[in-house]
Amino acid sequence: MIDCVVVGTDHRLQSSDTALKAHLAHLARNHNFGLVAEECAADASTVAGQVASSLGVPHLPIDMTDAERKEAGIYDRLCIRPKMRFDPASGYQEEHVYLRHADGVRENFWLDKIEAITCEGQVLVVCGYLHLDPLSEKARRRRHRVTKTVFPEDLPGRIRFEVLD
Q1: Is the CB of residue 94 less than 8 Å from the CB of residue 84?
Q2: d(CA 64, CA 69)
């Protein structure tokens, strides 16, 4: 069993947002993280990676490569994901589209990667807000303990999403 703290956020904050970094550092002060896993590409530079480095723990990019998506049979579906609408006033996305099958395959892949790493302590998982509930539910079904959090706190009120197969 893994004890996970899952943070759902806006992807655009992951690369350089100082407030997100401060939030993750605050979580780290209150938890014993042995791994920071993140929905991002292997070569991405992120604030979660910086927090992992400051803690002296591994940072694990968990998103699938294009080759892995093709092998899993979800690449084409993800490429034609309906576009999101944006609110120009706030700069935040108004609507997301969650692809039940394709995103579900990705989330299971992420959990497989996390489970393959042996670490001491809890795991901090950073993902897009769209994945917060489905990923957390999948982790619970695998008998992991999950605590969910959102950053920024008002994100749920600003984002809607539609579920498609």
Answers
A1: yes
A2: 6
What is the C-alpha separation between 102 and 85, in angstroms, rounded? Answer: 20
Helix, strand and coil content of the chain, in percent to the nearest 5, comes to 40, 25, 35
- Take residue 152 and report the two structure tokens written for it: 């920024």
pLDDT tens sequence across 18-61 = 999 999 999 999 999 999 999 999 999 999 999 999 999 999 99
**Measuring CA to CA, which residue among 125, 128, 41 is closest to residue 84?**
128
Q: Which residue has the tokens 């694990």?
A: 60
Distance, CA of 120 to CA of 58 (rounded, Å): 11
Write the DSSP symbol of residue 131: G
- Name the pLDDT band for 87 (thresholds 50, 70, 90): low
Q: Supply the pLDDT for residue 84.
A: 66
Extract the tokens encoding 3: 């004890």
pLDDT band at 91 (very low <50, low <70, confident <90, very high): low
| Nearest CA among 140, 133, 148, 126 for reference residue 96 | 133
